[in-house]
Amino acid sequence: MYQPVLSFPEGFLWGTATASHQVEGGNTNNDWYLWEQQPGRICNGDRAGTACDWWNRAEEDFDRARELGQNTHRLSLEWSRLEPRPGEWDAAAFARYRQMLAGLRQRHLEPMVTLFHFTLPIWVAQRGGWMNPETIPLFTRYVERAVRELGDLVTLWCTINEPVVYAYQGYLRGIWPPGRQSFPDAIRVLRHLLLAHGEAYRLIHALQGSAQVGLVKNMLYVEPLRPASWLDRKWAGFMNRLYNELSLIAVTEGRFLPPLGMERVPKLMDSIDFLGVNYYTRALFGVDKRQWMNSLNPRLNTAGVISDYEYGEVFPEGLYRILKHVQGYGKPIYITENGVPDADDDLRPYFILTHLAQIWRAIQEGVPVRGYYHWSLLDNFEWSEGYRMRFGLIEVDFATQSRRVRRSGRMFAEICQANAITPELVERYAPEAMEAVFGAGVPSAVKEVG
Ligand code: BGC
Fold this sequence. Notes:
- By secondary structure, the chain is of the alpha/beta class.
- It has 15 helices and 14 strands.
């Protein structure tokens, strides 16, 4: 008997992603902490505060991840904890991370560790943060220490999380620290982040032969706002280069292209062992002749399915097309983030199923996707959006720190455990996704059973 099943490759990694400042709580020594104290910076005046209290209770959530069938977890190290003052290392903080990483391993959750996920120690920020080229050697000094202390517990390292998003939010849009609005500054910061990636890549390999080191890149599926307009089509092409391509060309071919620069950077050549793809949405770009800065802002296709607070459009096909494209860079791929803010959890089952179906489709066509990390394991501090956006497979009551597994969390658990998606599962959790998962877009999903 034949039955359609989307089976994933043996050894596929299934997990979730988090980041230090968003979950740990008690991070009072980084630039985000200062930012949160300024009125009007964070939605509803929220502050990260205790967050998910991971500094004290991460293991309880690791247990939940394990019970939910996951076999990996991506988290980040908080530089401001490890090096609270220049050149001063906090042994207790290293010990706590050792405990957490060992805790993941004991639970058979392969750790993936990000070294920079948006937060800087206050003392680094005060010296100009990523605007200052001196931050690059400071970063590599911290990376060296982290790898020496923790490398025996970690194989999968991510250097920088989403360099373009960081430069865009903090230096162009100005809604993240340090709140600047300058295109040249954003480009300068992006350059420094990529250079830091290259340094970190070489360094980690020199220290740890077995390491697998990647860059985590947010990928937007870019289209013109007005497809009939020649100008918008050209502009969307330019924004796609700027947003998606330039960083990838830099870390594979070792060269900067305008507006990033004009030079070859040998240290960046072939500086990823894998590419981490974060995918959330399709983005439309068009020229705004009256307000030029607007042209740099992605717009949403309002005719599509839009998630809470207009965070993004649910457009799974975009992930497939991106995967087909980045296949050209010839590196293994992890989906290091993919998720949706959905407090009611009525969209998330559909979101997960349809995105996984597109990943499956790409894998069938030879794209080397090795794992999938859903964003996120649990609700957490969503940067300038504060606590209103709920990305978790597990719901968190931040007043009591109590947890409740969402339906989507149970569904994801079944997929992780089966390493597959069956029609029966789709029928039970999100029948509205049946056509998108097993229909025209995803043909020949056939596996022998019984
Ligand atoms: C970031 C996460 C963030 C998520 C959802 C990504 O851009 O890496 O830190 O919470 O998107 O917005």
